[in-house]
Design goal:
145 residues; 3-stranded parallel β-sheet; two-stranded antiparallel ribbon
């Protein structure tokens, strides 16, 4: 990974990682960088595209964030969610923005999730059947198109 090389080259620096939930590699890599390079990840900010973009209902897996300090990352929906954060001072979480992480697949059709965390969405299909949920959603979508 390129990011591993950058972290190794600049071990004295801290980084703010920004992406969105449509990139499954980032959803795994960013939490892993926090574990592999302790003290180098200042904050992780991930825009939840499933919450804001009607045409972008892409499921994402939040399992990598389980066990990380909740104050080191934030899922946000609009840029204003980041307003007034003291990022340089280590403030990465806007307490007024609900996180609702399930530590499993989120953003599944019909408000379903597969994790056991604090989610408003019911854990209906279970992790092993997450792809079945996607398949069924595709069938339902195709039926109504």
């Amino acid at each position: 990974y390129l990011l591993d090389k950058i972290f190794e080259t600049y071990p004295e620096r801290q980084f703010v990682l920004v992406a969105d939930t449509t990139n499954s590699d980032v959803m795994k890599a960013y939490p892993q960088l926090t574990k592999d390079f302790p003290g180098q990840v200042q904050c992780i900010f991930l825009r939840n595209t499933s919450a804001t973009d009607d045409g972008n209902r892409f499921p994402y897996d939040t399992r990598g964030f389980e066990g990380l300090d909740k104050n080191t990352y934030m899922f946000f929906t609009v840029p204003d969610d980041l307003t007034n954060l003291d990022i340089a001072g280590g403030q990465c979480l806007n307490e007024s923005v609900a996180q609702n992480l399930t530590f499993g697949y989120q953003g599944l059709p019909f408000g379903l999730s597969t994790g056991d965390g604090d989610s408003a969405a019911p854990s209906f299909f279970g992790e092993k059947n997450a792809w079945m949920a996607l398949f069924l959603a595709g069938l339902v979508s195709a039926w109504f198109v």
